[in-house]
Amino acid sequence: MASEPAARSTSALSLPSLTTVTFVALNVLGIVAYLFPFFSAHFGSKDSNWFDHITDAPLLFAAVAALCMVLVVADLTNGALNSKSFAVLAVLSALAAVLRTITLPAGANLYFFLVILGAYAFGPRLGFLLGALSFFLSAVVTGGIGPWLPFQMFAAAWMGLTAGGLRPVAQAMRIRGRSEVALIVVLGVAWGFLYGAITNLWSWPFLVVGPDISYQPGLGVAETLRRYWNYYLLTSLGWDLLRSVCNAVVIALLGAPLLRALLRFKDRFSWESSG
Which pLDDT band, with edges at 50, 70 and 90, does 146 fall under? Predict the structure, then answer.
């Protein structure tokens, strides 16, 4: 009889938290949104309203916004996010949105480096929120609201997620100082290409641009990847290369002092008096 309450307690402790469930749901939603056209036999029909995500984009954006709000409230409730760190999230998101309005040659901009450094300093979950929220604000500022927006938000959120997950790896490998900045530079270069490669997928299945670069339902995985690679080389690689170079230069120049400042803010916000 004494073991029954203990078993119930263990079962209750093993249940995932609302934060975990919401965070997993957000990521699964993003993956499904990107991959759904590849598994739907009727998405390309002219009367299906799937072309350019006319039907699903508003619903997807509403779901993303609602789940992000639930995630923030859950983190505030369980103490994973306090009022000060929430303020930092809001400030960094606003600054990143403003930086996106500064257009550099070939469409590169300063948006990415701030999201990467902020996420690296504050962790994967806040990095996810930083990427999603900052891109939404930047779309409001630049007038970039459209059916592509929730897909861009997910790509930016995953960029923040991976940047936030990189710091524990660097700490475990005892990478510090210039080597740490170099590691973040490599991440910035990688995401210069990954961001373009991911966001292209929101529209590529609907485009008819050539027999060897267009998607066609029923193709095997290998042929689909080959055609997408051809499409990426022709339409996106050049732009993404310049974005990667911009990320590398800005992070190399500003990464060390900005990262130190962000980490100091994080230490102050997470410190609590024992009295």
Answer: confident
